[in-house]
């Protein structure tokens, strides 16, 4: 079956941060039963007629040391995905690193991670779509600003250190993958945030936070950061040479800007700097417009969900609301190429942001953990059936050059990769292709 132009997707939750000062790892693939039920999980995709899956191997189980890998589980799982002709959007780092790396304060992480990304791409050359590091801003914030995960630090210097290492790892990984798969496409799954001043004395603080929310993508796309943020970065440990590194890497032409949006993504800000959830005020369409105006890249809605509540229809109602926002984004002229309900099955302990190991099931999935479909799963199945032929974006000319797993190696795929390689060489050789937006 041909992969549809518009990417209706789901994901299999594969977070694996450490907590308790690094002594315990929260492995969502294990908690949600994927290691046991992965074949059934892939069958669910066929039931829903979903052809795109945000998915990645457990980095802490695969990446055993410098140049040492255990590919046994990915060989099985990705082998079946290829047989099913499901297009994976491969998530290589989702909120954690192997124990031997330590955490995101490790300055060796970016270079080592690029080697891991290269090894994966060599092992699975048919994979084209990647999210090298998931939610870079959230990962740095929760690990080094809030003190929740991994290094469990809570200061600006630790945050900037984590952020620069995480984004550099993402950039180096993209470059490494392109050496092997020159037509690779990178979908940055990043949280889209907004901070609302709760009263006039909070306006300055809200403005600072609304600049800070862009840092990961500014650095990733080589866009000059705002002047206040430049000062913030340098005051907290980023050197001018480190900053210049990001401005001289020109990979945005290979990227789709993935925006994640939950009801918790908007915040109220108090005069003393405290923040708390604001609920949905602007919504996905308005905030995505802000990000698009800044980066001018194709967009994908890469994550959303809501818990199924007492009435049983809360998640399905949220799905319809988010889909209306996607259509609003599309109709306003933004090239939006995909939508994702995250995740395929329920999750565990996200009600405490994985900070506590309670084993509490969060009813957020299209299916429950017994693999029974939820009302939102039926609603998403119906939505896909009804809208698949109406989209992709505004024009078939804007469709993505995606090669399905079953097409890898055929004449068209080889020609596309050769063309991509020629274009990449030309881009790297020509200074006129650089982008210094700011």
Give the tags.
single chain, 438 residues, TIM Barrel, three-stranded mixed beta sheet, 15 helices, 16% strand, disordered C terminus
Number of strands: 17
The fold-level CATH name is: TIM Barrel
**CATH level-4 homologous superfamily:** Glycosidases
Please give the order of strands in the largest beta sheet.
1-4-7-8-9-11-14-15
Based on CA atoms alone, the radius of gyration comes out at 21 Å
What does this structure look like?
With 438 residues, this protein is an alpha/beta fold. It has a single domain (7-430), classed as Glycosidases (TIM Barrel), CATH 3.20.20. Helices cover 41% and strands 16% of the residues. It is built from 15 helices and 17 strands. The chain has helices at 28-31, 34-48, 59-62, 72-84, 109-123, 136-144, 156-180, 203-212, 215-221, 227-235, 240-247, 284-295, 314-331, 375-387, 411-429; strands at 7-11, 18-19, 24-25, 52-55, 63-65, 68-69, 87-93, 129-133, 185-191, 194-197, 255-260, 266-269, 275-277, 299-303, 336-342, 347-348, 361-362. Strands 1-4-7-8-9-11-14-15 form an eight-stranded parallel β-barrel, surrounded by five helices. A three-stranded mixed beta sheet has the order 10-12-13. It has a two-stranded antiparallel ribbon with strand order 2-3. Helix 5 (109-123) runs parallel beside helix 7. It is globular, with a radius of gyration of 21 Å. Mean pLDDT is 94; it is low at 430-438.
């Amino acid at each position: 079956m041909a992969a549809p132009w518009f990417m209706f997707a789901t994901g299999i939750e594969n977070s694996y941060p450490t907590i308790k000062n690094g002594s315990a790892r929260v492995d969502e693939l294990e908690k949600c039963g994927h290691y046991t039920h992965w074949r059934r999980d892939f069958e669910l995709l066929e039931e829903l007629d979903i052809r795109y899956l945000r998915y990645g191997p457990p980095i802490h189980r695969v990446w055993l040391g410098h140049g040492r890998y255990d590919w046994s589980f990915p060989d099985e799982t990705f082998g079946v995905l290829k047989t099913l002709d499901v297009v994976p959007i491969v998530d290589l780092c989702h909120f954690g690193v192997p124990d031997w790396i330590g955490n995101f304060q490790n300055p060796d992480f970016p270079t080592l991670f690029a080697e891991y990304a290269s090894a994966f791409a060599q092992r699975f050359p048919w994979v084209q779509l990647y999210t090298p590091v998931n939610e870079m801003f959230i990962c740095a914030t929760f690990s080094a600003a809030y003190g929740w995960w991994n290094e469990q630090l809570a200061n600006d210097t630790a945050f900037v250190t984590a952020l620069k290492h995480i984004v550099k790892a993402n950039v180096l990984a993209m470059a490494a993958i392109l050496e092997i798969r020159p037509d690779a496409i990178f979908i940055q799954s990043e949280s889209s945030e907004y901070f609302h001043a709760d009263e006039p004395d909070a306006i300055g603080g809200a403005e600072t936070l609304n600049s800070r929310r862009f840092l990961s993508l500014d650095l990733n796309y080589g866009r000059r950061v705002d002047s206040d943020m430049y000062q913030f970065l340098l005051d907290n440990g980023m050197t001018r040479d480190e900053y210049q590194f990001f401005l001289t890497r020109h990979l945005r032409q290979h990227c789709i800007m993935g925006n994640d949006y939950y009801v918790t993504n908007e915040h109220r800000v108090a005069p003393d700097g405290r923040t708390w959830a604001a609920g949905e005020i602007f919504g996905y369409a308005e905030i995505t417009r802000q990000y698009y105006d800044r980066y001018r890249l194709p967009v994908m809605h890469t994550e959303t969900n809501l818990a199924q509540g007492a009435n049983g229809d809360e998640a399905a109602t949220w799905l319809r609301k988010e889909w209306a926002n996607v259509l609003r984004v599309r109709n306003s002229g933004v090239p939006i190429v995909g939508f994702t309900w995250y995740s395929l099955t329920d999750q565990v302990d996200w009600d405490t942001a994985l900070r506590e190991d309670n084993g509490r099931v969060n009813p957020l999935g299209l299916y429950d953990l017994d693999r029974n479909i939820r009302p939102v799963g039926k609603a998403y199945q119906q939505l896909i059936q009804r809208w698949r032929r109406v989209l992709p974006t505004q024009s078939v000319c804007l469709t993505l050059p995606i090669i399905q797993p079953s097409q890898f190696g055929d004449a068209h795929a080889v020609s596309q990769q050769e063309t991509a390689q020629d274009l990449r060489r030309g881009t790297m050789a020509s200074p006129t292709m650089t982008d210094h937006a700011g």
